[in-house]
Amino acid sequence: MNVAVIGAGWAGLAAAVALKQSGAQVTVFEASGTPGGRARGVTDLQLGIIDNGQHLMLGAYTESLALIKQLSPKRAEHELLLRLPLTLESADGSFRLRAPQLIAPFHLVWALSFARGLTISERASALRMAGAIRLKGWQALANQSVRALLDQYKQSDTLIRKVWEPLCLAALNTPLEQACAQLFLNVLRDGLGGTRSDSDLIVPRVDLSTLWPTVAAQHVTMRVRHIVRTLQIHADGVDVDHERFDACVLAVPPYAARRILAECLDDRNAAITALRQRLEGFDYRAIATLTLQLEKSWSIPVPMMMLDENSASHQYGQWIFRRPDHSDQVTVVVSDAPDLLKIDRDVLVEAISTQIRTQCQRHPNAIDTLPPVIHHRLIVEKRATFDARVGLHRPSTTTPWPRLTLAGDWTDTGYPAVLEGAVRSGLRAAKILLQNQTIHAETAQ
Ligand SMILES: Cc1cc2nc3c(=O)[nH]c(=O)nc-3n(C[C@H](O)[C@H](O)[C@H](O)COP(=O)(O)OP(=O)(O)OC[C@H]3O[C@@H](n4cnc5c(N)ncnc54)[C@H](O)[C@@H]3O)c2cc1C
Hints:
This protein is an alpha+beta fold. The chain has helices at about 10-20, 60-70, 75-80, 105-115, 120-135, 145-150, 155-170, 180-190, 210, 215, 255-260, 260-265, 270-280, 345-360, 420-445, and strands at about 1-5, 25-30, 40-45, 50, 55-60, 80-85, 85-90, 95-100, 200-205, 220-225, 230-235, 235-240, 245, 245-250, 285-295, 305, 320-325, 325-335, 375-385, 405. The protein is built from 15 helices and 20 strands. The strands form six sheets. Strands 10-2-1-14-20 form a five-stranded parallel sheet, covered by helices on one side. The protein has a five-stranded antiparallel sheet with strand order 16-17-18-15-19. The protein has a three-stranded antiparallel sheet with strand order 5-9-6. A hairpin with a 2-residue loop joins strand 11 and strand 12. Helix 1 packs parallel to helix 15 (about 420-445). The longest helix has 26 residues, at about 420-445. The protein is globular. The two termini are about 15 Å apart. The protein binds flavin-adenine dinucleotide. Flavin-adenine dinucleotide binds near residues 7, 53, 228 and 385. Flavin-adenine dinucleotide binds next to helix 1, strand 2, helix 11, strand 15 and strand 19.
């Protein structure tokens, strides 16, 4: 089978690898020059190779981790990934939650029971909510927002501000009031409801393209800097910009899929109309990542810490990460970011540096003062994730055409826009095409 994959993000490349392994000839079309999509390495003249955005993975990202292992079988996990037990700690040390080396779910019970910065009744209330949700099979009420879920379980303002809101923003990039509770619970189920290692936090040690997309790209025919404009779908094949393939995985974001499929979607068939409406139903939210090059090495007690945001004084930072193997660089992440590119850059960098200095100064472990910032790079990805709002209907992997499948974090994965959702969607898109191919072959006999 000769298959075209359009889009070399984590979804498209996961599909490409799976198809290739099943004996298909695979050609990947990618608009940019680098594989990885939204999770890719970017070369900066002063900082070296950084990421398009700081990414955090979980131990529960089983398919992504398996793919990384499969593509670099000779490299030990610790060479590529930094894994640490679940730890949430604020930069000023006022809040800390750490999971000890106990079997699940006792690691969590312990972490919540001994969390610093919460009162006894807040800890009990968080534990009650976790227990009740687990008993209910991680099911939210229909069309419930995360805010309504937290209200249902009577979570205090402090608990929400210190624990639930940062987790919701980090996972769904959508404010509590709009964020879909079921998607949030699906993330909690996989991260917190499984084994202890599922809740591990994982930070890539190499840039996100090197981690596996570049390796994957070596196994297939790549057509980089090729922006696909049209698809035509026939009974016996799919034309990608007028080049014939047996089948196709469309793994571009929904707004691009809508454009590429324009001719095919112009049909009154109910299934096609539903697909068009779903592709048009997405809104997007931004994430900003500020990488700071410091004058000298600097360290924080854990690889990532929470920052207290104060947008009135441009102190927008929400998380600070130390870059593994780059002790003189840190990244600051702002989820659901306003347009930081409109703020004077020196003012912004100064405000965020001050934010880090002031908050770290209060930490009980006496963190050294942040050294002067000598370079920086701000990347604002305006359509970083889809808006994971209540009531969003996402397209499934299958389409009205058996020779075309869809892949991407935005398909109906059950997850918000995350790497693991992208990878799983790609694997599923490949599997369905292979099954459909077998059916075609059997019918033809
Ligand atoms: C700043 C930032 C931070 C994030 N943080 C996290 C995190 O911490 N943890 C996490 O799990 N997830 C995170 N995410 C989300 C994660 O990056 C995405 O879920 C994932 O990368 C989506 O992969 P994808 O393959 O579905 O889509 P994409 O990566 O968007 O891939 C689509 C590809 O299609 C290509 N393309 C588009 N149009 C065409 C065309 N016409 N022809 C050819 N090619 C085309 C694009 O160039 C792109 O390479 C973050 C995202 C951003 C932007």
